[in-house]
Amino acid sequence: MKNIVLIGMPSAGKSTVGVIIAKNLGMDFIDTDVLIQTRHGRLLQDILNTQGAGGFLEKEEEAILSLACQNTVIATGGSAVYSEKAMKHLKEDGIVIYLYITMKTVNKRLRNLKTRGVVLSKGQTLEDLYREREPLYEKYADIKLDCSNNSIEDTLEAVHCQLASLS
């Protein structure tokens, strides 16, 4: 089975939904943020604080390009879409699902911005980041699901329905 790649803003539910999808479908699961932390022995926020956004994005691209898996649900970091090379690699063997949420939902869900490891440039607001990333998510998505008002169960059901329609 092809990989299922989840993209979207921080707090869209990529990791939470991804691990349950993997469990329900008997697939492996990889969270690229956890992969980066494990490889470098540091929290994402520590990498951002010491190496900046550019250094972090290099490590993220490296981690994604190193993936050679099948039958795996991959929850990407929200910034994965900044690397065309990484996204091309993920799309080669995967179906990309964009877990879309509104800016209002991001603000409601994202409480720990300073410690979460979100790639923000100096002076950039969360709203700026949202506007910058949204077209990139749209560009790479094979499927877009509006999860703004969804519970985890609703999002899982929507993903399963979309995947079933592809079979």
Helix and strand topology:
Blueprint: E1 3-7, H1 14-25, E2 28-31, H2 32-40, H3 44-65, E3 72-75, H4 84-92, E4 94-100, H5 103-109, H6 126-140, E5 143-146, H7 152-166
Parallel strand pairs: 1-3, 1-4, 2-3, 4-5
Helix pairs in contact: 1-7, 2-3, 3-4
How is this structure best described in words?
This protein has 167 residues and is of the alpha/beta class. The radius of gyration is 15 Å and the shape is globular. Strands 2-3-1-4-5 form a 5-stranded parallel sheet, sandwiched between helices. The termini are close together. The model has no long low-confidence stretch (mean pLDDT 91). The chain has one domain: 3-Layer(aba) Sandwich (Rossmann fold), CATH 3.40.50.300. It contains 7 helices and 5 strands.
Short description:
With 167 residues, this protein is an alpha/beta fold. It has 7 helices and 5 strands, in the order βαβααβαβααβα. The chain has a single domain, classed as P-loop containing nucleotide triphosphate hydrolases (Rossmann fold).
